[in-house]
TrEMBL record, chain A:
Name assigned to this protein: Ring-1,2-phenylacetyl-CoA epoxidase subunit PaaD
Entry-linked InterPro entries: Fe-S_Maturation_MIP18, FSCA_dom_sf, MIP18-like, PaaD-like, Zn_ribbon_PaaD
Stored Gene3D superfamilies: Fe-S cluster assembly (FSCA)
Originating species: Cytobacillus purgationiresistens
Top-rank taxon: Bacteria
One Pfam family it belongs to: FeS_assembly_P
Domain (MIP18 family-like): residue spans on this chain: 6-75
Domain PaaD zinc beta ribbon: 103-154
SUPFAM superfamilies: Fe-S cluster assembly (FSCA) domain-like (SSF117916)
Length: 160, 284
């Protein structure tokens, strides 16, 4: 099986709600297995109530089907390992930023707090407006330096 | 000296990956536990969604909706585990079961207050904050315990749920602390709500008629351990706001784990499954 071919196709599947980033750079692709007769792709759900998951599954199936290499394609979501926000790649972090979403913070301090830089001006002089945002994985913030509202991806870790 | 409890105490370590590794009694009580988990989140997510557009301010509307969506997602995962055990399709489990077949705790099905979300809603925010906070605190402890469940697929789901409810707990705790220390009216309404929730909370803490078997199979810690930990968590918070913890935790309105519910549930089910029942075979 040509794994790179599959991976290349998966890079073209974007998050339906953030079309700047692929599911690969979001860290959702856990395994690509099988052979030309049967391909199995295992994905990790980000947030469990996320309505984009079914759309992603369908888009992955379509994209792989179009390669016309595999007789049978199975795309499934698994829960082990759990998706955590540190799975977003460095490229993915840049793509989120270009979309106006601050990437998830890499470290959380002892008191459970974290710093978020503004995706527009990089200032750390920002305030949290709402921990919950328009989708399950995002918060709403405000940059006091450039005076822009923006969104940030929530940190999600097994330490929580 | 008081005995200290901890997760995983006396737990059998043998892990089960599917039902072929269980005897019929173990399988039966696992299914019972899963119905409790699924139905609890399902009905409270619905009650939460009735607040849409009615929450105290716009930011709360956004936050509460997001929490409800997460919770409905958790219910869907637990229904999925039931489907995997041969209980039927998730949609039927969520929409097609009558009130007497539901295993959610009665507290979670009670209306948000007088009125209807479409007409003259006079919902009680104090009751909502207290019910959600106490339940989420309980859910956090329940998930921590389920992370060590002897049924591996359930343990995997618990790891995921546990990460997400970190934010829910933070949210409800903030509301609770703010309102309980606001003015006299807020304090009075919150204290009334605390009493109201304690009067029904025994049902939440209960594992139902087969509680002992559920714990013995290693699916979750014993009921007494979870109860003890929940009380301990609340006691610390209560002390910090100078509130005495009600002495008795009761079950006034029914026994949800045994299928004895209030009319509130039947009404809620008929509303939330109305579209489903128009055409149960429809493809979504």
């Amino acid at each position: 099986m040509n794994k790179n071919l599959v991976l290349h196709a998966l890079h073209e599947v974007k998050d339906p709600e953030i079309d700047a980033i692929s599911i690969v750079d979001l860290g959702m692709v856990e395994a690509i297995r099988g052979d030309d007769s049967k391909l199995v792709v295992e994905l990790l759900p980000t947030f469990m109530g996320c309505p984009a998951l079914d759309i992603i599954r369908k888009n992955v199936e379509e994209k792989l089907d179009r390669l016309k290499v595999f007789n049978h394609i199975e795309v499934r979501f698994i829960n082990d390992p759990p998706w955590t926000s540190d799975r977003v790649s460095d490229l993915g972090r840049e793509q989120l930023k270009s979309f106006g979403i601050a990437p998830p913070p890499k470290k959380i301090n002892e008191t459970g707090g974290w710093e978020v830089g503004c995706p527009y001006c990089d200032s750390l002089y920002t305030t949290m407006e709402n921990l919950f945002g328009p989708t399950a994985c995002r918060s709403i913030l405000y940059c006091k330096s450039c005076k822009n509202p923006f969104e940030a991806m929530k940190p999600l870790s097994t330490m929580m | 000296m008081k005995k200290k409890f901890y997760h995983g105490e006396g737990r059998r370590i043998l892990k089960k990956n599917d039902q072929s590794q269980m005897d019929s009694m173990e399988r039966k009580v696992l299914i019972e536990l899963l119905y409790q988990l699924a139905d609890d989140d399902f009905i409270l997510a619905y009650r939460g969604s009735e607040w849409l557009g009615l929450a105290p301010h716009i930011e709360e509307d956004v936050a509460f909706s997001s929490i409800n969506q997460d919770m409905m997602g958790h219910a869907a995962m637990f229904y999925q585990l039931l489907e995997d055990l041969g209980e039927g399709h998730v949609d039927i489990l969520a929409h097609g079961r009558s009130s007497k077949d539901r295993k959610n705790a009665v507290l979670l099905e009670l209306v948000n207050g007088p009125g209807h979300y479409l007409e003259k809603p006079k919902f009680d925010w104090a009751f909502t904050v207290v019910r959600h906070y106490f339940y989420t605190q309980f859910k956090k402890i329940r998930m921590e315990s389920l992370k060590n469940s002897s049924y591996q697929p359930l343990a995997d789901v618990a790891v995921k749920v546990n990460m997400e409810i970190y934010y829910h707990l933070l949210h409800w705790k903030t509301w609770f602390m703010q309102l309980i220390d606001a003015n006299d009216e807020a304090r009075n309404r919150m204290e009334t709500a605390v009493q109201q929730v304690f009067d029904e909370f025994a049902d939440v803490l209960s594992y139902g008629p087969n509680g002992r078997e559920i714990a013995e199979a290693g699916f979750i810690d014993k009921e007494e351990i979870i109860t003890q930990m929940w009380k301990h968590q609340l006691l610390t918070v209560f002390e910090s706001v100078n509130l005495s913890i009600p002495i008795k935790i009761k079950t006034k309105s029914g026994k949800g784990r045994e299928g004895f519910h209030t009319d509130d549930l039947a009404v809620a089910l008929s509303i939330l499954s109305e579209v489903y029942h128009i055409d149960p075979a429809a493809n979504w």
